[in-house]
Batch of 2 targets.
Target 1
Amino acid sequence: MALLASFCVGWWVTNAFVTDAITDLTRSSDSTCPIYDYVRPETVHSTILDKIMRSLVFREQSAAKLSGAIQFETTTFDTSPSVEDNPKYWAEKFQPFHDYLENTFPLVYAHLKVEKVHSWGLVYTWQGTSDKKPLLLMAHQDVVPIQEATLKDWTHPPFDGVYDGEFLWGRGSADCKNLLLGILESIEELIKIDFTPQRSIVLGFGFDEEVGGRRGASSIADLLTERYGPDSFYAIIDEGGISLIEQEGLTLALPGTSEKGSVNINIDLTTPGGHSSVPPDHTSIGIMSELVYELESKKFESFFTPKNPIYWGFQCIATHSKGINPRLKRDILNAGTDRRANRRVREHLSQDKLTRYLIQTSQAIDIIEGGAKSNALPEHVSLVVNHRVAIESTVDETVSKDLTQLLAVAAKFDLGVYDITQARQLRNDTASGRFEILYDDPLEVAPVTPINDEHWLNLAGVIRHVYEEVAYPEKYGAENPIVVAPGISTGNTDTRWYWALTEHVYRYRPGIAHTLQTKAHSVDEHIPFESHLQIIAFYFEYLQVVDALA
Ligand SMILES: [Zn+2]
């Protein structure tokens, strides 16, 4: 059973003080934003934790493992073939990487059952001795490609995995071979201390997350659902979230408890052709341009409601920050009951692009194509609009906004409108031409993970324990605690395939640099190496804590 400390003292002297308080889930602050109690394993293996965080030998060995993993170019592309169509394509990318994992983690391969799903997905099962719900840890093996033109801009070649003593550089160092390796390293450490899980631990590593996860995570989810049934997992933890971030003088850890939805809207316009010497007032390009202008002129509504995890994160900032502007603080705390305060908070958050899209559906005109020749009227123009759907909204609402605007433009230019997705003629075709609209790859907003339960309390408590007592005891503690609050990510993860397995889905990767700082997906992706060691320490502790829970 995990132990919750009833008050905050250094973990190396706490055994005398800890109370067996799992049934007493009292929190040490007011309920708007509690500072969660520390949660530690029954036995804290301080020498192992010290080795993970501070031993130079361990650090070098760990860096060598991650560096080796980065040297496999496990890139996936939007144009990558299916596994069935071109097995060789995938085998060349992933067989060497699988061999590497097997050679690098002999204890894992000796103690866990390893299965390959849809050829290259990896599922590891560390069978528990009890029938407690298993825990699922996720990561992905693939990485985003490098654009040739940017190769010269890298400080170190992207697939060399250079470790300079402080940082580890390369594609996948932050997204997310660090997480994949970190999980395996923590399990090796647990095997070394003869830990035998009561609760099964399952690892699911997809191989095409960066292009949607249809081949990898989707197949793994099917296997796990078939094997364990719906709602069968204790919790799922995947990449994502923010750990740690300083805001308004506070240090926050923000495990993601939901994800925005998304949808691509494809719009095609076909009009009669002709010679460009006798053009109409508006060619199809002109009409499509007007539609683009209209779409961009009308923004989506913003929301600041308790449904959005971000709401609670800001309650934390307002509750605990000493530096925050007093008026903003008041407005955030009153935003649930006072409309004007709510509007002012939304206006404040909308000033910054990074926070604006946490509370609003985004729209990005990403592709436009049309026209072929300088002396011929364009007969066809196509447009792709990408939306990330706000937590309070739906794919339907998002589509409906664009469709309303499309119908208005169609009426103005006397054009037909055909909805391909619904197979519906929305406006009759005319001699002037027709629009066609298709909603591609719709993904609803992820169900919001509850935070008023033991699952959350234990996650938050272990985060505090690992950061305040293990990683940075000199920096954090009772006087300067880490505030754990829920967050969302504006992008999507492979968890989209796993919703049926549990309502407790967390997107959380330990570390001290967030996605923008690590330059994930761009030139010079890198991590401060201590971030990687924190992944190992976190899972080493979290797996023991969760194992002991009922
Ligand atoms: Zn990723």
Target 2
Amino acid sequence: MVNAVYLHIPFCDYICHYCDFNKVFMQGQPVIEYLEHMDSEMERTLERFPTSSINTIFVGGGTPTALNEQQLEQFLHSVSTKFFPYTEEGLEFTMEANPGSVTPRKLEIMKKYGVNRLSIGAQAFQNSLLKRLGRGHNVDEISDIVTMAKHAGFENLSLDLMFGLPEQTLEQLSDSIERAVDLGITHISSYSLQVEKKTVFYNQWRKGELPLPTEEAEAEMYSELIRRLEAHGLKQYEISNFALPGYESQHNITYWKNNEYYGIGAGAHSYVDGVRRANAGPLKQYMSRIDEHGFPYVDENELTKGEKMEEEMFMGLRMRQGVSKQTFEEKYGTPVESVFGEQIEKLVYKELLKDTGSHIALTEQGFFLGNEVFQEFLAV
Ligand code: SF4
């Protein structure tokens, strides 16, 4: 049964130099037509794959707050009409929001439709780094959006911070962390820069014009991130995520627990009835597929039991608590050790995994070498 919804708004006011998400520069795009197609996709999805309860809704992008006030109202009206009949008290309703693209009126609209968590794309607290990343906002606008959001009554605020950036120093990262914490946020997601193909950074990297920190320097940044955030009471509950107690992202936990979710919008992915589906990414293709076929899928993959168990491990191990042995057995009808005993034993010996009795989880060292651990569970 699906209890989570992801909705994708692919429009951005600017294109960042590192970004390979499914997004388009907003100007001149058929926004209303796109929102109407999302509305159809929501309706048809619920008809074809009914649910009785929705616990989390997450609107990502792109930049959802690039929508103007009218578009935002139209979109949130659609979402509430379709999904609110199934939501219960305690719904976590997150929208990604970029500094510089939010107004008090937009926040008011979000509140009106039940949005209760903002995920703010801050990335860094140095204007030089923001410029290097191609972000279209400055440091003052980060403080402004937090102040506006609090004023509008939002208290569950997450901030994204990046590390491993070109010419970023440890001192700059430490300063960003302290300034984020000073703003009184409840959650931080922090990822190291990955240089992806088809980005400005990829071209610079190929030409030798992207001075990235060494692996050692990046590991030091990650260590500092954990140390400082934990010191401020933001507990690392997943490899890249930190929260005050009770503010962990319930939506993302759905992914890490390998539970099912709807994915609505261009390029969105979904996992329903054991089938992973991918929607068409380009806007025109997304809309014409809905018009012609009813659904925008370009890929459908029914997972085998083996694949599901692998995913359960490498997604679940991202969380500090790890994979629950009892849940694994309930879901797959067999103890985790009977499927992955060899891998677990090997990784426990290497001190990258630990067996707590109830869970299999990463050790402190394992958190730094996650990829080495996850690979062991692929294609057993
Ligand atoms: S705002 Fe977000 S989605 Fe848009 S280009 Fe930048 S990183 Fe990508």
